[in-house]
Amino acid sequence: MPRPIQATIHTAALHHNLTRVRQAVPDAKVWAVVKANAYGHGIERVFKGLRGADGFALLDLAEAERVRHLGWRGPILLLEGVFEPRDLELCSRLGLWHAVHCDEQIDMLAAHKTQVPHRVFLKMNSGMNRLGFTPQRYRSAWARLNALPQVDEISFMTHFSDADGPRGIAHQMAAFSTAAEDLPGERSLCNSAATLRHAAAAGVRADWVRAGIVMYGSAPDFPENNADHWALQPTMTLATRVLAVQHLQAGDSVGYGSRFTADGPLTIGVAACGYADGYPRHCDTGTPVLVNGVRTRLVGRVSMDMVTVDLTPLIASGMQLGTDVGFGSEVTLWGRASNGSMLSIDEVAQAAGTVGYELMCALAQRVPTVVDGAV
Ligand SMILES: *Cc1c(COP(=O)(O)O)cnc(C)c1O
């Protein structure tokens, strides 16, 4: 028997979260962002749940090929555009739409031989300072693109740095609106946080939203709001089982570095999940975890293949050690337990000083993953 650890991808939850995005922006077309192997879920595993989107957005050309291979004939957008000239051949062949964020990409297009002009998204750097043309250079980039026979329709995009926080999007909206004003074409501005928090505001044109984390049931603005607030459902469960039980006495310590010492008798379970499975090593004593669907906490340090969990709340709730809880008990690291209890990946991420995005993306290859297929 393999180790009892398993990840489950919830098709119905993906479908539900897409519906939530549609409710938030009823008039927008929705890019389901499936970069980074669908935020660690697996592109093939999320496809059924997300195929109701208007298009798929990603970065990696091999991932675009996988989406086409699944039979998707609709739009696919390369969010960073092409990296070298021959990537344009694949765009022509597979009908990929692509961002254009720098002069070098326009040069490549100008030199590209194709029968089929490309649909492109011209990217503005409106303040994030990663990719895109500055507002000052935006119109000349557009004019250059617009003159190329290799280019079909031009759309306009930018990306917000603070849609999830107090600074908001107004400063970037102002830069974008001024420079892109009356340029003809569709706009794609909002990521998940902007879609939920700002897309309804006046002046935020959302022809296409780019919804990533919200599709995977994580609140883009946690802890200000949680997944329940936005009525999102977790799309990934990471679960394992108890391998061993230890009975500690006052003064006994647990795990590497003896980071946790019991101050009285304590029963702990040893669960088959560690940082080599993608569970963050930065989680420490106190990180929430479910055992048999009951909320408890980690004790001691996360090791490569194991974590140790406090069984006190289970015993206190009346479960009998050895019969109701013990070897083989279900341990839910995040997602939903068999009894229906939920543990949000955002809470676990917070305990590790990071965000749900990173935990999903870090799910390790060695974790067997199944799709819970009901829609
Ligand atoms: C990843 C990405 C998104 C999605 O961001 P979320 O916060 O996950 O919604 C949107 N736009 C671009 C350009 C991205 O790279």
CATH superfamily of the largest domain, by name, is: Alanine racemase
The bound ligands are:
pyridoxal-5'-phosphate
Largest beta-sheet details: 9 strands, mixed
Question: In which range does the helix fraction lie?
Answer: 25-40%
Quote the average pLDDT. 97
Commentary on this structure:
It is a single chain. With 375 residues, the protein is of the alpha/beta class. It has two domains: 206 residues, Alanine racemase (TIM Barrel), CATH 3.20.20.10; 137 residues, Beta Barrel (Lyase, Ornithine Decarboxylase, Chain A, domain 1). The protein has twelve helices and 19 strands. Strand 14 and strand 15 form a beta hairpin. Helix 1 packs across helix 3 and helix 7 packs across helix 8. The chain is elongated, with a radius of gyration of 24 Å. It starts with 5 loop residues before the first strand and ends with a strand. The mean pLDDT is 97. The protein binds pyridoxal-5'-phosphate. The site of pyridoxal-5'-phosphate has 12 residues, from helix 9 and strand 9.
